């Protein structure tokens, strides 16, 4: 049984609604997609669909842009954060494998 994504991660919001929620123009939102800062899904008709998580991310991006941070810098920060997250996950998995191999159990 697969877990369904939380309501925050479900891509159901149209670009018009995202524009209203964030105060960004539809063109700005599309530009951030072009710069690989946000990744909407597409409906069968090709319309962009965003999640509440995407809306929060777009607000964060807009705030950083207002502070003068370039989109390239924002993207690099996102890449570094993703690499840290992946490294932490690998460490967690490796720790679990070692614990399973040697029969080490967590103390409660």
UniProtKB/TrEMBL annotation:
Pfam families: MerR_1. It comes from the Bacteria. Keywords: DNA-binding, Repressor, Transcription, Transcription regulation. PROSITE patterns: HTH_MERR_2 (PS50937). GO terms for molecular function: DNA binding; DNA-binding transcription factor activity. SMART domains: HTH_MERR (SM00422). InterPro entries: DNA-bd_dom_put_sf, MerR-type_HTH_dom, MerR_fam. The keyword Repressor applies. Residues 12-80 form the HTH merR-type domain. The keyword Transcription applies. This is Transcriptional regulator. It comes from Gracilibacillus boraciitolerans JCM 21714.
């Amino acid at each position: 049984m697969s877990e369904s994504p939380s309501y925050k991660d479900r891509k159901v919001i149209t670009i018009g609604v995202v524009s209203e929620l964030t105060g960004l123009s539809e063109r700005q939102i599309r530009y951030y997609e072009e710069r690989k800062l946000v990744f909407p899904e597409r409906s069968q008709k090709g319309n962009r669909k965003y999640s509440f998580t995407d809306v929060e991310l777009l607000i964060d991006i807009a705030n950083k842009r207002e502070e003068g941070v370039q989109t390239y810098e924002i993207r690099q920060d996102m890449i570094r954060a993703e690499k840290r997250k992946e490294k932490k996950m690998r460490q967690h998995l490796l720790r679990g494998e070692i614990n399973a191999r040697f029969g080490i159990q967590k103390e409660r």
